[in-house]
Amino acid sequence: MTQPITRRSVLSLLPGGLLAGALPACAGAPSPAASAPGARDSRSLELNPASPFPADFAWGVATSAYQIEGAASEDGRGPSVWDTFSKQPGATFEGQTGEVACDHYHRYREDVELMRSLAARAYRFSISWTRVLPEGRGQVNEKGLDFYARLLDELLHAGITPYATLFHWDYPRALFEKGGWLERDSADWFAEYAGLVVKRFGDRVQRWLTLNEPNVHILLGHMLGLHAPGLKLPPEKAVVAAHHCMRAHGKAVLAMRAAARPATHPEIGCAFAFLGYHPVSSSAEDLAAAEELTFASKERALARPAWWLDPLLRGSYPADGLSVHGAHLPPKFERDLDEIHQPQEFLGLNLYWSEPTRRGADGRPETLKLPAGYPRAATDWQPITPQALYYGPRFAYGRYQLPIYITENGLAVRDQLFLDGSIHDLQRSDYLQRALVRLADALREGVPVRGYFHWSLLDNFEWSDAYKQRFGLVYVDFASQRRVAKDSFAFYRDIIRSNGARALVATTVAADVVSP
Ligand code: FCB
């Protein structure tokens, strides 16, 4: 049964952290435990004006090329697998495609201006591989490179630090026809592209991400057929595709470092869908169970963090995953591990939700069902579990010891323009606040989180859900391309301006909200 929501008190916000000292702060270190699902959590929303966010914290927003750019066949851009997949009957909601999307290709100035007015310090975007290399390799499309040059200049002029992702799922169609990730050479194709981009933009971009969520790309696009390229490979083949993705990452890192001018000190990482687990109590057993399950890879190995991050960051596949998939890996796969295992400056975590876990009676970790009526985003897959923003960084840092960026976090809401001309997306602001409260807990415990990128700046093409789901801080009327800042935009702007403190000071303290 769900608990009733009651409001304990209403506090008005005073600017500039004036409440500091006047009201009790949260007890220093957070309890490592989450409440049991359905239990009440009065702690996480208590007043706590002391912000643990470092002064140079990268407050940002994230997007990706196919989801916002449009101009799909303009100025020499070649087709990606998403261009063709989204046109297949039944592939996307109502057959919608990213052909026009947010028309960002033509409206990027307006969009950078929006970011400037958001006070965003950083912007994570992706480069469309086929805009710069229409066939994926070989012939360079100068007009495509020009677009990113203009975008970067605009960002730098606005004082916004670019974080460029090289691959956010829009794989070149021409290379897919040559075998895609199943082909061993695919690692060299990606490295060629990565080197080219860094050579051109290494003077303006210091922070790079190679692959976005390769685990989701392989799972949904190569095993379940739900995303482009729409394959339903058996595990033994998907394991090979995943292995080549990892090699592509490693080879790209080498090519990027070779292409960058040394004085620019490129910082390279990847953005990973860190599908994790959180404990349901404060007991050490449940905490250990959640961590154990987070890094287990015996089941659904290809979606699991350790299957990917262990080779990338520790140079070996996890033993439990190998016991299932070792035989599916290419012969002599061990020889590739040195290439895969490249030093990275940071780890990007895309965090949307996590699953409640405890130590079962048989000693093994067990996940719990969320109670009926549990709060969820408009997307079915996302229950409101801000714990992910605490346990995700904590577990990831514990195992991989790299500085962390939250490269994505956000919430889909069925937003609409209200009669008063505004978009009141309180659910998004509330989630953002909960997420940052939890992230602050991780920072207080010494987890080096360097930045937070909200997904997304704009409502955009949400893959197979197309325009049904709205993730933006800015509403996009896709017919007119008019942008309207939602209420959450102002909320996030105030958080950024206060360097996070605003997220830790609740104007309305809903102390007895149902706590996930
Ligand atoms: C992530 C993707 C991103 C967006 C969000 C909602 O898995 O990286 O492109 O679709 O989910």
Distance between the first and last residues' Cα: 13 Å
Largest sheet: 8 strands, parallel, barrel
Uncertain residue ranges: 1-47, 507-516
Bound molecules: beta-D-fucopyranose
Gyration radius, rounded: 22 Å
Q: What structural category do the secondary elements indicate?
A: alpha/beta
- Taking strands numbered 1, 2, ... along the chain, how are they ordered across the largest sheet? 2-3-4-5-6-8-11-12
- Overall residue-averaged pLDDT value: 90
Count all strands and give the number: 15
Which percent range fits the helix content? 25-40%
Characterize the overall form.
globular
Strand content: 5-15%
What brief labels describe this structure?
516 residues; alpha/beta; 8-stranded parallel barrel; 3-stranded mixed beta sheet; 15 strands; 34% helix; disordered N terminus; disordered C terminus
SSE blueprint and pairings:
Layout: E1 9-10, E2 58-62, H1 65-68, H2 81-85, H3 104-118, E3 122-126, H4 129-132, H5 142-157, E4 161-167, H6 173-177, H7 186-201, E5 207-212, H8 214-223, H9 235-259, E6 267-273, E7 276-279, H10 284-294, H11 305-314, H12 319-325, H13 337-340, E8 347-350, E9 354-359, E10 365-367, H14 388-400, E11 404-409, H15 426-444, E12 449-455, E13 474-477, E14 482-485, H16 487-497, E15 508-509
Parallel strand pairs: 2-3, 2-12, 3-4, 4-5, 5-6, 6-8, 7-9, 8-11, 11-12
Antiparallel strand pairs: 1-15, 9-10, 13-14
Helix pairs in contact: 3-5, 7-9, 8-9, 14-15, 15-16
Bound molecules: beta-D-fucopyranose.
